[in-house]
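Side project, low priority. Logging it here so it doesn't get lost.
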Amino acid sequence: MLEGRIRELAQLYPVYGYRRIHQTLLREGMQVNRKKVHRLWKLLGLKQPQKANVKKIRTGATLPEAATRPNEVWSYDFVFDRTTQGETLKILVLIDEFTRECLSLTVRDSFKAVDVLAVLKSVIHRRGAPEFLRSDNGSEFIESDLKIFLGLAGVGTRYIEPGKPWQNGKTESFNARFRAECLDREVFHSIWEATVIIGRFQQHYNEVRLHSALGYVPPAEFRASWDAKMQVIE
C-alpha cells in the first residue's frame, strides 16, 4: 500500500522529491518516517531531476524591506509561454513574499500598464494594499498612472537593478516552480484554456501544495495560522 501510494504521488507530482512526498503522506494520515520513504523511493527507482549546477556571478546588494508579515511586500513579474497555435501567453505573476501566496496569475496575449493596474486594483480591493511592491523597471510597472495610483494607496515601490533577478528572489523561485509544475507539463490550445488550467494551478499552489519554507504547509494554511496567532496576541 505504501509503495503504491508513493508511486502514485511521484507520477502525480513528478518534480517532487522524497521529502515533499513524505510530508504529503503524513498529511494523508500515514504514520511513516522519512528514512523509510527515502529507502522505498530509491528501491522504486524514483529520482528527482537534478538541477544544472550553473555558477552565477551575483553583484549588487539585495533590496531592502524583506517581508516579515502578510501584505508587507508583494512582488510581480511576467512569465511567457505559447499556445499550440503560436499565440503569445503573457502571464502576470503577483505574490505575497511573506506567505508565498500567489495573488494573481492573470493570462493575456499582451499587457499594458492599464491592465496591470486593473489587476492590482482587484487584488487590493479583495485583500488590502501592501506596504511595498517589488518589480523590475519594465514599462508596464513604471507608467505614470500606475505610480500615481500606488502613491495614493500608500504603496511604496522598489525596483530591482537591471540584470539582477535574484533581487526579486521570491518571485523568481515561484516562476521556476510555475514553469516546472504547470507550463512545462501542459499544452494550451487557446488563451481561454490556458486561463482555466493556470487558474487551477494557482488554487492548487495556494491550498494544496506543501511549501518547504513554510514548514511543509500550503501558503493559504500558513496565512490562516498566522492570522489566528495574531488574533490571540491582540
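Brief comment: The longest helix spans residues 191-207.
Revisit when time allows.
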